[in-house]
Amino acid sequence: MTALDPKVERPELLSPLALAFVGDGVYELLARQQLLARGSAPVGQLHSRTVELVSAAAQARAYRLVAPLLSPEEDAIYRRGRNANSTRSPRHTDPAVYRCATGMEALFGWLYLTGQVARLEQLFQVILAGQEGTP
After folding, report:
1. Across all residues in the chain, what is the average pLDDT?
2. CA dihedral 117, 14, 11, 75 (to 10 degrees)
3. Nearest partner of 26 among 104, 133, 128, 127, judged by Cα
4. Is 5 tagged catalytic?
5. pTM for the complete prediction?
6. Contact call for residues 103 and 121 (beta carbons, < 8 A)
7. Candidates 5, 24, 75, 94; catalytic one
8. What is the DSSP letter of 89?
9. What radius of gyration, in Å, describes the C-alpha atoms of the chain?
10. Which of 13, 15, 63, 85 lies in the 20 to 30 Å Cα band around 45?
């Protein structure tokens, strides 16, 4: 993944929900790239698998896989995202799972905005390896 120049100075000062907003897109793009790297498939299958990888429940499972690998600074960004007060009420999702997913998205947004693309890819590979065989 090649990072675009986000032109954001001091992304750590952005709100955790703004970081999660960016991280949501980054996380989904990583999922789509990985699925395409595995070979061609019908678009419907690619979409279904992407949805499985980026759902709040999948992101909560992903956090459990990468939590031991996070630096103190990364963990602090995750916690800021997890603890953010969102005005959005999740439908069909446990609020704790949703908060965990928001934390992951904030972390991925922050990593992207700070240009740590190699770290993004490293964490995402751990996630994929840990979720192999997970429906």
Report:
1. 87
2. -60
3. 104
4. no
5. 0.87
6. no
7. 24
8. P
9. 14
10. 63
